[in-house]
Amino acid sequence: MRRALALLALLRAANAVLVGDRVSYLAFGSNMHPAVLTRKRGVEPLRSMPAAAEGWRLGFSLRGGGREPSFASAEPDGRRTLYGVLFDLEPLDWARVCATEGVPFGYLAVPVRCRPLDADGRPDRREPVEMAWTLVASPGPARVADEADEPKPSERYLSYLREGARLSGLPAHWRDYLDGLSRDAAAPLAVDPVDAAWVADRLKTT
């Protein structure tokens, strides 16, 4: 009974995320990079800030193919914390994110509790929880069930996570963690030169 009530409360809070003219979305993968979210997907956030979801981890449990062995997914894990960028989006832009990410076939949109970060780059428990949607790999043949079996992502894909985290102001400890996922942390970022140029031009005008 207690679990049912807790789930009902969570779903009610999640529904509140969709009320009004904006949707909250926690991005942790390549959508943290502005060239992916804005240049490629055509999504211009209304607000963005670094945030964390406790009880979740960064996984690579969505199997890819060809040059992309895997893609990032939020995975429940009571011992860990997932860091990312909390965006406020217009509902149509959220629908565009879902469509381009293959929801509900590749991913499922699930509600998570997020907190902004404190001065040390950790979840600030003095601040109220914000409900947001995030993306979890859908059940099916492309989902890798065991963390130990998750395919290591490509350097190209990791480059978007690493540079997206830097551009979005995520804390140094999370950027170091992302660097550690690389086969060669000293390797040059493999971000598409067109995307890199677009970001450079955008930074000049802000």
Automatic annotation (TrEMBL):
CDD domains: GGCT_like
Entry EC no(s): 4.3.2.9
Keywords per UniProt: Lyase, Signal
Superkingdom of the organism of origin: Eukaryota
Enzyme's top EC category: lyase
UniProt signal peptide: 1-16
InterPro entries tied to this protein: G-Glutamylcylcotransferase (IPR017939), GGCT-like (IPR013024)
This protein's record includes keyword Chloroplast: no
PANTHER family per the UniProt record, alphabetical: GAMMA-GLUTAMYLCYCLOTRANSFERASE
Protein name: gamma-glutamylcyclotransferase
Gene this chain is encoded by: SUOX
